[in-house]
């Protein structure tokens, strides 16, 4: 079990001014920030990041949304990081997300769902390395 996960604060949450509140929540829940940056994905880069979903019907919509505005990307550290972070953010569809979760509080829809969280230790490492070099991780 690795102690790191990767997250993005998505364009909807950025546009709605929730980045500060969401980062504050990560930290208050015990996640240490290992790396952090604001950036914008080109359509090409968003397509590459979500290549695993290429065959899904929502792929085009996902790529277009994720490249529609700035995002915040971060690597976070805590014991049991991947599973605990997914509990903190809640179900992919905010209508199904538990009370007290970040998506329940800040997400609009299954597509525009405020935050991303890695679904496995392996993907956390791949996704973190997509945005950050080893020298950017402290
Ligand atoms: P995320 O955890 O970032 O990884 C894949 C994303 O695809 C997911 O969050 C959702 O934002 C998006 N997604 C999943 N299901 C759907 C859907 N039915 N329609 C649109 N987007 C979706």
From TrEMBL:
Keywords: ATP-binding, Cytoplasm, Kinase, Magnesium, Metal-binding, Nucleotide metabolism, Nucleotide-binding, Phosphoprotein, Transferase. GO terms for biological process: CTP biosynthetic process; GTP biosynthetic process; UTP biosynthetic process. Residues 2-136 form the Nucleoside diphosphate kinase-like domain. One of its GO terms (cellular component) is cytoplasm. It comes from the Bacteria. It catalyses: a ribonucleoside 5'-diphosphate + ATP = a ribonucleoside 5'-triphosphate + ADP; a 2'-deoxyribonucleoside 5'-diphosphate + ATP = a 2'-deoxyribonucleoside 5'-triphosphate + ADP. ATP binds at residues 10, 58, 86, 92, 103, 113. Gene3D superfamilies: Nucleoside diphosphate kinase-like domain (3.30.70.141). Its cofactor is Mg(2+). It is found in: Cytoplasm. GO terms for molecular function: ATP binding; metal ion binding; nucleoside diphosphate kinase activity. It is an enzyme of class 2 (transferase). It holds the Pfam family NDK. NCBIfam families: PRK00668.1 (NF001908), PRK14545.1 (NF011116). Homotetramer. Major role in the synthesis of nucleoside triphosphates other than ATP. The ATP gamma phosphate is transferred to the NDP beta phosphate via a ping-pong mechanism, using a phosphorylated active-site intermediate. This is Nucleoside diphosphate kinase.
């Amino acid at each position: 079990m690795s102690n790191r996960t990767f997250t993005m604060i998505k364009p909807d949450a950025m546009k709605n001014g929730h980045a500060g509140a969401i980062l504050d929540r990560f930290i208050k829940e015990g996640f240490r920030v290992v790396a952090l940056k604001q950036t914008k994905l080109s359509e090409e880069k968003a397509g590459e990041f979500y290549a695993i979903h290429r065959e899904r019907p929502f792929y085009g919509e996902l790529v277009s949304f994720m490249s529609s505005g700035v995002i915040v990307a971060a690597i976070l550290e805590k014991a049991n990081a991947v599973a605990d972070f997914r509990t903190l953010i809640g179900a992919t569809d905010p209508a199904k997300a538990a009370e007290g979760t970040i998506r329940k509080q800040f997400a609009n829809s299954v597509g525009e769902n405020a935050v991303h969280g890695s679904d496995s230790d392996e993907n956390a490492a791949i996704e973190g390395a997509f945005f950050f070099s080893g020298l950017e991780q402290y």
